[in-house]
Amino acid sequence: MALNKRSQRKSGIDDDMFNILMVIMIALIIVVTITAVYLVIIGTTPPADESDNNVSTSVGDYPFKTEISVTVPQSDDDTKLIDKDDVSSEFMTLIDVTDGKVIASRKSSEVMYPASMTKVMTLIVIVENLKSEAELEQVLTISHEYNGNSGYGFKVGEKLTVEDLLYAAILQSDGVACLALAEHIAGSETEFVKLMNAKATEMGLKNTLFQNCTGLHHVYHYTTCNDMAAIMAYAMKNPLCAKVLTAIKYNPSDNFRKGEGCTFWHTLLHNRLADKAIQPNSAEIVGGKTGLTEKDSSGYCVVAYAKGKDGHYYVSVTAKAEGWDANISDVIYVFNTYVE
Fold first, then answer.
1. Which tens digit of pLDDT belongs to each residue from 276-326?
2. What's the half-sphere exposure (Cβ side, CA atoms, 13 Å) at 38?
3. Of 173, 282, 298, 316, which is the active-site residue?
4. Which member of 108, 116, 150, 316 is catalytic?
5. Which of these is catalytic: 107, 119, 289, 320?
6. Residue 173 known to be catalytic
7. Is 188 a catalytic residue?
């Protein structure tokens, strides 16, 4: 009887061990099976196709995307204050791009509405998301009705190249051109604005937020003079952006109105400066962008890029002036007063 009991105890131990081993083996089989199924799934599922939603997040090749670094200027105690009695603009800044310093300012770190100066950031995002130089010749069809937001007056169904629309957006301040390009790049204006705000964050702009690609007034569509100056300085370091921003005129391709000899004229360089033979004494304004929504929002505003006689490069931003003549006078004043 004693032997039988010992045999039973030994048999019981073996049964317990057997049960434990079975549990471990089953668990291992389950883990191996799940892992195998997972590997099969990821191995046969194609990667997400960005073209499915027409949202582009990649960056184009040189010269459209270059390594650009711009320091956002910050006003300090050494900055000269522009007296309100001397100017019409409520918000102003003048920075030395070469030294990265604010020379003179007035409320330059306070939030203001940029109106069509917005289009400088729009230009940056479009250019940096082009895939190749050949894409500039791609023909797009205008799909938006003219609603007072087209500097040239494009009509639905008209065809222009990407390059044509870039110049129309900046020189003619054409909002319809911006919308056509935004949809081409990101599928919709909403998705494109996400790229604009991502770019602002990447650039270190802490007081800038966009709601559209055209500059139409929105209470949460804002920037500061110092941020806007940084955006302009950044754009002028990109070869294609600089080429567009400094062109006095541009003749669109034959795709547009059958080559009728249409010309896009720069609203700042031609209409406000060259046409009136105006330039500062201390510098030459070589690029920029005008802006206007309403007097009680953005007012009349201009971001101007200039080369000084001292060899330095400068950016001025003047916003919420009472009229074009007053605004341009402010631009000339800050250059003549604060650039030696």
1. 889 999 999 999 999 998 766 889 999 999 999 999 999 999 999 999 999
2. 6
3. 173
4. 116
5. 119
6. yes
7. no
